[in-house]
Amino acid sequence: MASSTATGPGTRPGSHEPHEPYAPQESHEPYERTARTTPSRYRDRTSYDREAVHAILDAGYVCHLGFVRDGAPVVLPTLYGRIGERLYVHGSTGSRPLHAAGQAEDPGMPVCVTVTHLDGIVLARSAFHHSLNYRSVVVHGTARRVTDEAELTAALDALVDQVVPGRAADSRPPTAKELAATAVLRIDLAEVSAKVRNAGPGDDPEDLALPHWSGVVPVSTHYGTPIPAENLAPGIPVPGYLPGR
User: Fold this and answer.
1) What are the tens digits of pLDDT across the range 43-75?
2) Are 64 and 137 in contact (CB under 8 A)?
3) Is 138 helix (H, G, I), strand (E, B) or coil?
4) Distance (Å, rounded) from C-alpha 175 to C-alpha 34?
5) What contacts 145, CB < 8 A, 6 or more positions away?
6) Which of 16, 72, 162, 200 gets the highest tally of CB atoms within 10 A of its CB?
7) Separation CA 62–CA 115 (nearest Å)
8) Of 121, 125, 122, which is closest to residue 205 (Cα–Cα)?
9) Average pLDDT, the chain
10) Half-sphere exposure of 120 (CA within 13 A, CB side)
């Protein structure tokens, strides 16, 4: 499946509504700005609007999880899903972040999660002003391993539906053995910011007469026609919820 780092401006539906008791109630208030969520450059592109943050998160399914392991920084790409004000990150029970989180249940493992969508390549007349149009979210927080069975089941459903909305209900649920081999980290959405650039090139006035093309090359995800498995039984139709159908 194509990575969500090249997705168009539309928001993909399918985010889960909060489930009690393991999902906190959603608020419509902006996220509180903190020292870690205040950028040093282009502050005008930064937003703490809750709905804007959720829309960027719901439009993708691949994130980068950063943490410190044995004194060194580590950044890993992985799947994620959102339920209300919580982000769930997928892993195996033998993975490094899950192992670290398991060793530090209280107070948990400090992490930074980033999600980025590339929407356009911005070409200016000068090399200095080349840029990208993008939507991104940065989440700072503490990752804790999900151990409650009901929350784990809901989190795994959310991870599946984050990639293909509706798929969790249209597939076999995990067995006890599979659940034992799968682990999920939970990060509360509290210290969060979004950053967006959606504009043309910022050419300097003295460069406007230069004979170089200037503009934006749009970037979007393309889903191909679904290809059935070679051993798929005849007569099973392509689900209507699949992208590219």
Assistant:
1) 789 999 999 999 999 999 999 999 998 899 999
2) no
3) strand
4) 42
5) 98, 101, 102, 105, 183, 184, 185, 186
6) 162
7) 7
8) 125
9) 86
10) 17
